[in-house]
Structures are given as structure tokens and as C-alpha cells.
Amino acid sequence: METYSAIGIMSGSSLDGVDIALCSFNRENGRWSFEIEKAVTYPYTEEWKIKLQDLPNKDKQEIAATDTAYGQLLSEMVNDFLKDLPDKPDLIASHGHTIFHEPEKGYTLQIGNGQIIADATGILTINNFRQKDIELGGQGAPLVPIGDELLFNEYDFCLNIGGIANISYRDNNQRIAFDVCPANQMLNYLSRQLGASYDKNGAFAQLGKLNKQLFEALNADPYYRKEKPKSLSNQYVTNAFISKTEMADASVEDKLYTVVKHIAYQVNKSIAHLPVGNLLITGGGAHNKFLVKAITLETGMNVIVPEKEIVDFKEALIFAFMGILRMKNETNCLSSVTGAREDSCCGVINKP
Fold this sequence. Notes:
This protein has 352 residues and is of the alpha/beta class. The chain contains 12 helices and 13 strands. It has helices spanning 46-54, 60-82, 114-121, 131-135, 145-150, 184-192, 212-219, 234-247, 252-271, 289-299, 308-327, 335-338; strands at 2-11, 17-28, 31-43, 91-94, 97-102, 107-111, 125-127, 157-161, 164-171, 174-182, 278-282, 302-304, 348-350. 49% of the residues are buried. The mean pLDDT is 97.
């Protein structure tokens, strides 16, 4: 039996904080299993939230300086995370924080300098998981489906509801996955207008009603007519979707209710052609009971929300797993998902 340990680091578009998970992986008779040994979310300071939100509009110099500063921030978090652990893991796999993602233009940028993390922690660090797939003509996203395929294959569908919702499933003997629609990025944006960082259990949304005009405008977005593989960027969500909610003549509660219904509608639309099965929901949106109920009613699927640790740290877990596959020089990025010319082994290795 092969045994490995790795730390996965994930920062998503909803800017909740940095998820760090120490995971162990075993492979026996070709089958992988995992255990999350320890997991912590380090929240961002308001200063860092603003800095990361504004960074796409800054010049190259400031982006480069922030890449270094963010690498130092991640290093401090990891060293704090490690301080009560008896042994160091085999590696750190860091997604970084996405500043740009424009696969059609051939580039993507996740900041958080990997060499700085490796040097500060003394642990081999792998980062920049998306660029190689884009160079092979792929979307560079979503990346998590390799984990759905090898670690969560008992579920028919895996839906992750973060800032953007993405889904993965098997169809015609291959793993298919894509970004479905904006999710927490929109819900959190609207919740902030009511003085809350997020809509706990959809409490605000439940006070609203459907705004038909906004619902139709959101569903009419050209993204939904694109063939998969496809992925959404934070900038596109802001420019195309959040701008539509801004223009709508409706209360914030009505907007929240309508966005929840929009998410449920698009999730159903993405899998309605497939037989009813088990739908695993993870990510921050899995804690929103109103949203989960809306998806359950719309899809008719057997919806499963796992234990909190899997809900909150599945992406960090899978990045740790991708790091192990990268270290072993095995496929960790699926062309059936991203549309690249071939499967690949992605990630840049930084030795301390």
C-alpha cells in the first residue's frame, strides 16, 4: 500500500478566507482513499479582502508585489497550522488566489509565490496548477473533477457551490465538468447590502419573491448558450451578472430570492438530460439550507450534504491530492473536463 501526506491550500472567489487541510492518502489495488487529519480556515483581514478584490485593476508592478506579499501571508498561515503537528507532510499544494482567468486569451493568474512558501516552510510546494492546461488549449478549469473521479466516485454528481458553482459527473464513460453559474459571489454581494457578509441559511432570500424580469435576464446570459467545456471568471460574473442585479428594480431580498432560484434552475438545466441519482453538494453554498432545498426541488435528485469538514475543505483536499499526483508524475488534469488537447500533469514544483 502506498501512503502519502499533503497540505492543500485553497482560496476561492467568495473571499471567505484561506482553507488549509492536512490530508493523508492511501492507494491499494489501484483504489485511492483519504483522511482529512486537520483543517482550518484562516479568515482574511478586511485589508486583504479589499486588496484581493481590487488587484485585477492594478498595474503589473503592484500585482507582482502582491504575489510576493500573498506568498508570505500563506507561509505564515501554514507555519501556524504546522506548529502542533508532529511530522511535516510530503508536500504543500497551493491553488493560490485567482486574479485573472481568461483561457480564451491564453492566460490565468493565481497569486501566492510558491518558492516563498517552500522556503518559509521547508516543504516542497506545488502551485500554478492551471497554466499548463491552458497552454494545451484547455480552460484550465475546473480542476477538482480529478478528485471527484478518483476519491468521490460513489456519487453520480458532484456539485461544488463556491463563488461560482461547478458540477462534475460521468457521461459516455468519461468525466465531464464545467462551471454552471455564479453562486456565492452574487449572493454575498447582495447580502453585504443588508449589512451581512453572507445570507445565513438563505434567511434574507426567504423574505423575498421572484422578480421575473431579473430571472429572465440572468437566464438569458450568453454563457448559458456556450458549449462545454466552459468556465466563468470572477470578472465576467461582476460585469455580466452582478450588473444585471444592480439594474433590476427590486428589493435586495427579492434579488436574493431570484438569484437562488436562478442557481437552482441552472443546476437542473445542466443535468436534466441524465437519470436521477445521488447529488453531492459541497462548498459554502451547501450550508445555505434555502439554496439546497431549492436545488433539491428543482432537480428531483437525491441530494447529499456530507459532514461539515468535507463541505468546507473538499477543494483543499483535492488540491492536496493533485499535488501527490503531480509529485508522482501522474495525470491530475482531465482533458474531457477542460477541453485541452490531452490529459496532463499540472503544477510547478518549488523545492525549499
